[in-house]
């Protein structure tokens, strides 16, 4: 089966999937859209520092300085620093495993570590799930849909050169995460990232870029461990 | 360019200083000088250094201190937030939608301990700490080195250096080390001593 036929099949398979419906395009154009969807993410390896504002569904709020150091799509380190300068969380994500070297309460649960790693991957890393559809939304925005074997889907919508919309759906089709990347990009990073986690234990994240470093390979993550 | 007169005057001052005796020569002199400071207002720059980053994270804000142990530690950038310590304990706030709201992000007990210690250091009390043992390193400027007594605290803070100012009773900077390559340096400037501070600054998040 050639590439065009394969894309046609996946469009048909995805027709009843979660997310915004996409109008199909020619395979060559679909390929170009897929490349543009991937281009919204910074090129590895990199370091980024954000101001992170968390607001829980209960109204409780907190702020951190968030540092992410990434070497590969499946490997990064995240450090949360309190505004007063104390490292309150330090963990490394590697191929789905999370190892925390420091996690002060209430950030010391595995659920928190997994949720945060998932949010970081959603907003800062190009999806590694198979691309099942690329096309235009009803309003003409370019969009890509990715699907995991368990039925979770993720949609990237390129609303403008300075704004992208990220939608993550659970296997049952319910919207799980709703993210927006916006503002002029600096070294591949959007100035602002907003994320809403749905559900009764929901929360919102507002992340403002403070600084970014595009790393050279000689200063890899492994050379900066251990310790904060 | 350094002129001859500047050089002579500088040498004269350098010779004179030990004869006069510094406020930071010993613990009792430090306590005595700091005891004359009833209130302090200052600006601060906090520089967080992490091994993983080439450039440090820089935060700025204002400090208000009222003897014996009231502190208002207010960050203006990059995160607008507030820490108040008084006899009721430690309260942390973050700025949301134009107002300060209570911060629920981390448990305040460890932070309270550190801020209580900072209150003691700002008040010139280094020797009375149950958390840190202290060593005075004489010099211009003098430095107080604090080492955690407790193994548990040492997991998070390996040491603290407090640099004393040439102004009696004033701390120039505090450096908190969390490991060999991770530190937080807080440098104070525009220090004003014994000027009245409105009491509500310590009572309310405003």
Q: What's the quick description here?
A:
The complex is a heterodimer of chains A (228) and B (206). Chain A has 3 helices and 13 strands. Chain A is an alpha+beta fold.
> Averaging pLDDT over every residue of chain B, what do you get?
85
Number of helices in the DSSP assignment of chain B = 5
- What percentage of residues of chain A falls in helices of 4 or more residues? 10-25%
Ends distance of chain B: 48 Å
- Based on secondary structure, the structural category of chain A is alpha+beta
CATH class of chain A: Mainly Beta
What does the main sheet of chain B amount to?
A: 11 strands, antiparallel
Task: Look up the CATH topology of chain A.
Answer: outer membrane lipoprotein receptor (LolB), chain A
CATH topology of chain B: outer membrane lipoprotein receptor (LolB), chain A
List SSEs of chain B in N-to-C order: HHEEEEEEHEEHEEEH
What general form of chain A does the structure show?
Answer: globular
Q: Radius of gyration of chain B in whole Å, from Cα?
A: 18 Å
Number of helices of chain A: 3
Please give the oligomerization state of what you see. Answer: heterodimer
CATH class of chain B: Mainly Beta
Q: Would you write up a description of this structure?
A:
The complex is a heterodimer of chains A (228) and B (206). Chain A has a single domain, classed as outer membrane lipoprotein receptor (LolB), chain A (Clam), CATH 2.50.20. Helix content of chain A is 17%, strand content 47%. Chain A is built from 3 helices and 13 strands, in the order αβαβββββαβββββββ. In chain A, strand 4 (75-81) and strand 5 form a beta hairpin. Chain A is globular and about 50 Å long. Residues 3-16 and 222-228 of chain A have low confidence and may be disordered. Chain B is 24% helix and 42% strand. In chain B, strand 5 and strand 6 form a beta hairpin. Chain B has 5 helices and 11 strands. Chain B has 206 residues and is α+β, with helices and mostly antiparallel strands. Chain B has one domain (22-203): Lipoprotein localisation LolA/LolB/LppX (outer membrane lipoprotein receptor (LolB), chain A), CATH 2.50.20.10. Chain B starts with a helix and ends with a helix. At the A-B interface, strand 2, strand 3, strand 4 and strand 13 of A face helix 3, strand 10 and strand 11 of B.
């Amino acid at each position: 089966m050639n590439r065009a036929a394969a894309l046609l099949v996946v469009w048909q398979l995805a027709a009843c999937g979660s997310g915004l419906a996409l109008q199909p395009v020619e395979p060559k154009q679909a390929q170009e859209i897929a490349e543009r969807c991937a281009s919204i993410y910074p090129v590895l390896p990199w370091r980024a520092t954000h101001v992170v504002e968390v607001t829980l569904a209960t109204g409780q709020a907190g702020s951190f300085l968030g540092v992410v150091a990434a070497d590969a799509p499946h490997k990064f380190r995240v450090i949360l620093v309190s505004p007063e300068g104390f490292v309150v969380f330090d963990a490394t994500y590697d191929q789905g495993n999370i190892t925390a070297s420091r996690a002060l309460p209430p950030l010391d649960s595995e659920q928190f570590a997994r949720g945060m790693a998932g949010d970081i991957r959603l907003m800062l890393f190009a999806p590694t799930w198979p691309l099942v559809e690329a096309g235009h939304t009803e309003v003409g925005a370019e969009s890509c849909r990715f699907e995991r074997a368990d039925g979770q889907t993720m949609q990237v919508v390129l609303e403008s050169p300075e704004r992208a919309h990220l939608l993550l759906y659970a296997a049952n089709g319910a919207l799980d995460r709703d993210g927006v990347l916006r503002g002029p990009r600096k070294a591949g990073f959007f100035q602002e990232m907003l994320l809403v986690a749905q559900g009764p234990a929901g929360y919102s994240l507002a992340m403002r870029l403070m600084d970014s470093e595009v790393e050279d390979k000689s200063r890899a993550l492994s050379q900066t461990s251990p310790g904060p | 360019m350094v002129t001859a007169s500047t050089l002579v005057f500088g040498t004269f001052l350098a010779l004179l200083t030990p004869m006069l005796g510094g406020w930071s020569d010993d613990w009792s002199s430090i306590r005595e000088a700091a005891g004359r400071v009833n209130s302090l207002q200052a600006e601060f720059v906090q520089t967080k250094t992490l091994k993983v980053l080439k450039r440090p994270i820089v935060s700025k804000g204002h400090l208000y201190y009222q003897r014996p142990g009231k502190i208002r530690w207010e960050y203006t950038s990059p995160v607008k937030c507030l820490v108040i310590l008084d006899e009721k304990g430690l309260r942390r706030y973050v700025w949301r939608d134009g107002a300060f709201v209570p911060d629920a992000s981390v448990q305040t007990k460890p932070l309270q301990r550190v801020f209580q210690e900072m209150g003691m250091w700002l008040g010139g009390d280094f020797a009375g700490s149950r958390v840190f043992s202290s060593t005075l390193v004489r010099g211009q400027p003098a430095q107080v080195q604090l080492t955690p007594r407790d193994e548990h605290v040492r997991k998070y803070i390996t040491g603290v250096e407090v640099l004393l100012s040439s102004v009696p009773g004033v701390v120039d900077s505090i450096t908190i080390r969390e490991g060999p390559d991770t530190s937080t340096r807080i440098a104070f400037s525009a220090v004003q001593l014994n000027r009245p501070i409105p009491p509500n600054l310590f009572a309310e998040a405003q």
